[in-house]
Design brief:
mainly alpha; Arc Repressor Mutant, subunit A; 2 strands
Length: 220
Amino acid sequence: MGVLKHKGKSYDLDSSGFLTDTERWDENFPDAIAPQLKIEKGLTKEHWDVIHYIRNTYKKTGICPTVFESCRMNGLRRKQLKKLFPTGYQRGACKLAGISFRDSHKQQELFTTEAAEALHAVASKKSYTVDVRGFLMDPDEWDEYYAIHRAYEMKIPGGKLTEKHWKVINFLRESYKKNNELPNVYDTCEASDLELEDLEQLFPDGYHRGAVKIAGLRLR
């Protein structure tokens, strides 16, 4: 927990630097936190268009839009988004918009006890501990059975993971193991030779809610 102060206002932040109460957000907040997110020359109209799109979508639906939706609705390509938000989509654009990865699932149906029990029975004598959003609590519990089961739950056609899916999944896990931190969507696309449109086709549920979840990882 921490407190960010700017122009006479104070904002409570969680341990990852996200605003703890999205209702406390105002346009002073992004200006205050932008320098910490490698945005050194101030926020431009392009920044604000994305920020307002994220907040307006969350306000209407209770769900944070995926990186794919934000890019499509604002006419941005991956390299353009990276230039605007160098620390990533969740850890850059969404943080500026006052929406954390926890808020992004607030209005979605939480992972039920029945679903959790079904997941625990994926493989014989194998169990997985997941949080209320369905993310694996311990990355070391992950195996390919878990990934395949997750794929069936999502919008991946037939739940079939192709070589391209596995390339992304393996990169995520190897990068996390090496750096103890999730790679951002830009690095994942570059390492997998994908554009955002390609990644969306592979993981329609989103980068964090799709690829990262299937890889048994989560933002902390």
